[in-house]
Design a protein that fits this description.
With 105 residues, the chain is α+β, with helices and mostly antiparallel strands. It is 27% helix and 30% strand. It has a five-stranded mixed beta sheet with strand order 1-2-3-4-5. Strand 2 (18-23) and strand 3 form a beta hairpin.
């Protein structure tokens, strides 16, 4: 994660069911569904004003850290999150065993 994003807070917006990261007045987010201690990350969106700065990657990293720190399992339905986990296989530790086979494709 780029240093400029390290100290920015991740906000779990339970009302909108999304994780949010606000940078320079613009908010990038990941929509989620939560059931017990499993979170399905569905869709990641970053405003055009933040394009190319690594905000989506920082948002994903902060969200994965939040899931781990709060003992959630991850189901990465969002293609961007899925690709991130595939590139960083250490994060597969958050994925329930029955979903790990999806990474073999």
């Amino acid at each position: 994660m780029k240093e400029e994003f390290i100290h920015l807070p991740l906000f779990k917006n339970e009302e909108k069911q999304r994780f949010e990261l606000t940078v320079d007045g613009h908010t990038a987010f990941i929509d989620y569904e939560e059931s017990e201690k499993i979170i399905k990350l569905i869709h990641t969106e970053s405003p055009e004003a933040l394009a190319g700065r690594g905000v989506a990657t920082a948002l994903i990293e902060k969200t994965l850290n939040y899931l781990e720190e709060n003992a959630y399992a991850l189901v990465p339905l969002c293609p961007l999150v899925f690709a991130y986990v595939k590139r960083h296989p250490e994060w597969k530790r958050l994925v329930p065993a029955k979903y790990l086979r999806l990474f073999d494709r």
